[in-house]
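User:
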Amino acid sequence: MHRYTYSCPLRWSDADANGHINNAVFLQYMEEARTRMFREVLATDEEGRRKNAFVVSRATIDYKLSLTYRDQPVDVHVWATKGAAATFELAYEIRDADRLYAEATTTIVAYNLEVERPRRLSDAERTFVARHVQPTN
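Assistant: Predicted structure:
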């Protein structure tokens, strides 16, 4: 069981006029980390990607501190908290060594884009999620 960590660069366009990272951009940081984490179980061909996709059905974010634009990246930590037949929940921390900027969760649904319906997780996907499960505090 382990957390996946993505070192996420901040982009100038992520910030508002006051230099604060826009709250909606935190969802993009989570998406970037999650997509990189999933690389080993994502299909590489177009047909496989359409039949074996994942979609976010719910996202919640608790903002802890303002994040201002800077040259240094933030770390986005990702881990699974629970899984089921067709869904699982991911937890996130967006932080650096000294500060926690946000905590978040997403509910992920295994999805077949061709038929526009949820699908069951494959054995490989269940194994992948199980490797990343950490209980919530």
